[in-house]
Amino acid sequence: xxxxxxxxxxxxxxxxxxxxxxxxxxxxxxxxxxxxxxxxxxxxxxxxxxxxxxxxxxxxxxxxxxxxxxxxxxxxxxxxxxxxxxxxxxxx
Length: 92
Description:
Elements: H1 6-15, H2 20-65, H3 70-91
Helix pairs in contact: 1-2, 2-3
């Protein structure tokens, strides 16, 4: 007899057991592995953003060494805004 939970029936059929504890354990193991994959992807994205922030920071330092010339103010401001957006994104 089929249960009211379709995912339970599907997993029970896949593992060949209708014991509740085995089906539940299989479900939790699959979810944990899926979350690990998501965590790895998230960590990779955060690392990329951190590298971008460091790179922009180095550029900002170099530009600031030249002084505050009128021609550099607009690009310098854009870089600072982009850097702040990346830092805000990491903070979430």
